[in-house]
Amino acid sequence: MGNTVAREDFEWVYTDQPHADRRKEILAKHPEIKALMKPDYNLVWVVVLMVLAQLTAFYLVKDLDWKWVVFWAYVFGSCISHSMTLAIHEISHNSAFGNSKAMWNRWFGIFANLPLGLPYSISFKRYHMDHHRYLGGDGIDVDIPTNFEGWFFCTRFRKFIWIVLQPFFYAIRPLCINPKPITRLEIINLLAQLSFDVVIYYLWGVKSTFYMLAGSVLGLGLHPISGHFIAEHYMFLKGHETYSYYGPLNLLTFNVGYHNEHHDFPNIPGKSLPLVKKIAAEYYDNLPQYNSWIKVLYDFVMDDTISPYSRMKRQLKGEVKQD
């Protein structure tokens, strides 16, 4: 049955998110950080190599026994797929080609999306910008779980299932919390993805197609890298909304673990976030931080005071501008 957690609602706060004020303070004290606000052109070549690696894997698994298809989907495909979602995260911030070539980034995001098997890039960008502008905003920030998630996934066993099903909840949550009209680019993203999937099935068959889709689902569910979903903003310590992770998996995730630094400076590519921490160490060294995403997952399940309700939430005031 598991133990029921005590929390019965989100942590409602009536202050602004801390990142804008800290950004102003840091830039006033360390103006040299502005030099890091530029595209990371190496990201383009890394993404191209990742796409080629997955295409090679699609070919190599086409004649394997099913048990080995599943094995490689989890051991290799899931890592590449989850890493690619974080490359798309970088691209959503225009890190590949810069803000002056925003559409180049959108098209490149659609290309990076292809080996995931499911259309993701364009919709993610629209909702992710809301997450940065209105962190914890009620009815706007779809990174916040629904009330149903908080109410139902309230025991250790149910929290474990919630982690396994995270890809499902991230997919349907926008439709429940903040549905938006479909855009032309989202339709293009969908058609490009369906065309790619059909080509993979036609060329290499059902095993390659399964490997592609299973790798994406498994990589975003019960997987060490998925610890970042919980580590970033779940309130393990009261009053702290964003947490950074400084462990080795940053090498596979474009430094998404440097999450306080990222929210303070979303226009600085992940490659340069360790430099932000080094330059402004007095602002980051004493903030709560993690060194293991696996431990975050374990603690989330086993700590009866933590649940999907363990998020700060805000009632937004004034005009809300969304993508």
UniProtKB/TrEMBL annotation:
Q: What keywords tag this UniProt record?
A: Endoplasmic reticulum, Fatty acid biosynthesis, Fatty acid metabolism, Isomerase, Lipid biosynthesis, Lipid metabolism, Membrane, Oxidoreductase, Transmembrane, Transmembrane helix
The enzyme's main class, written as a single word, is oxidoreductase
Choose any GO biological process term that the UniProt entry carries and state it. ceramide biosynthetic process
Main subcellular localisation: endoplasmic reticulum
Q: How does it sit in the membrane?
A: Multi-pass membrane protein
Where in or outside the cell it occurs: the entry states:
Endoplasmic reticulum membrane
Transmembrane stretches in the record are 43-61, 68-87, 107-124
Hydrolase among the record's keywords?
A: no
GO (cellular component) term, any one: endoplasmic reticulum membrane
Record's subunit section: Interacts with RLBP1; the interaction increases synthesis of chromophore-precursors by DEGS1.
Sequence similarity: Belongs to the fatty acid desaturase type 1 family. DEGS subfamily.
The identity of this protein, by name, is Sphingolipid delta(4)-desaturase DES1
